[in-house]
Design brief:
This is Kelch repeat-containing protein 3. Helices cover 17% and strands 38% of the residues. It contains two helices and eleven strands; from the N terminus they run βββββββββααββ.
């Protein structure tokens, strides 16, 4: 777990002197964007434990990580994948004006190496296509494959004619049973693949399954919307 946002109690000058002659102070709630990183260690119960035994959980606060996302941000959520945390998004309050707080939203992706306690920014990489020579060879194989398929279809048609009778018999009006048509299977919906990050947001939900990262929801603000 990385960072977050909260309001902590702090003392501030009240603008007037106390009875003792010193500066009076008051307690206020100060907004804080945290940059700490925590690791929840989950230890499964031993094999001889009762069936209803619960795992042991323990929060471990890590030292300040190297190469932290900059600027500091809240709402940057993280999930676990093969010894690292995968972090996405977040929001940074730029400045507070009379109209409110102006915020900068992010759609950057980071990996936090748990053992090295270091962050690395992840970028999208397009898959490498086959070399041009392989593409030409593939096209030639495709043409040869189509030619072979046409030849095999012709041989099948000739065999069907011979089994039903001669071509002359067909000319005399003998009908051939048409080949059974294969029903069209419903087409699988194509998955849209883009090489752009999702829209900037904070507090998105993350999950990893079978080396695939899923991002769900989140919040984005613009003006009063």
């Amino acid at each position: 777990m990385y960072g977050g946002y909260s309001r902590v109690k702090a003392s501030a000058a009240a603008g007037k002197q106390s009875k003792g002659g010193g500066q009076a102070s008051r307690t206020v709630l100060k907004p804080v964007v945290h940059q700490d990183t925590w690791f929840l260690r989950i230890t499964q119960p031993p094999a001889e434990a009762p069936a209803n035994a619960l795992p042991t959980v323990r929060w471990e606060r890590r030292k300040k990580a190297a190469n932290l996302p900059n600027p500091a941000r809240a709402g940057a959520t993280m999930t676990h994948h093969k010894g690292r945390g995968i972090q996405f998004g977040g929001v940074h309050d730029v400045e507070e004006s009379e109209e409110g707080i102006d915020s900068e939203f992010f759609n950057t992706l980071y990996a936090w190496n748990i053992e090295r306690n270091r962050y690395f920014q992840l970028t999208l990489r397009r898959p490498r296509g086959p070399p041009k020579k392989q593409q030409q060879q593939g096209a030639e194989k495709g043409r040869r494959g189509r030619g072979k398929a046409d030849e095999e279809e012709l041989l099948r048609n000739l065999a069907a004619l011979e089994s039903k009778g001669s071509i002359a018999a067909a000319a005399d009006g003998e009908m051939f049973e048409p080949a059974a048509e294969v029903e069209d299977l419903p087409a699988k919906p194509e998955k849209t693949t883009t090489f752009e990050m999702p829209h900037p947001r904070f507090n998105a939900q993350l999950a990893v399954q079978d080396d695939v990262l899923y991002i769900f929801g989140g919040t984005f603000e613009k003006g009063d919307r």
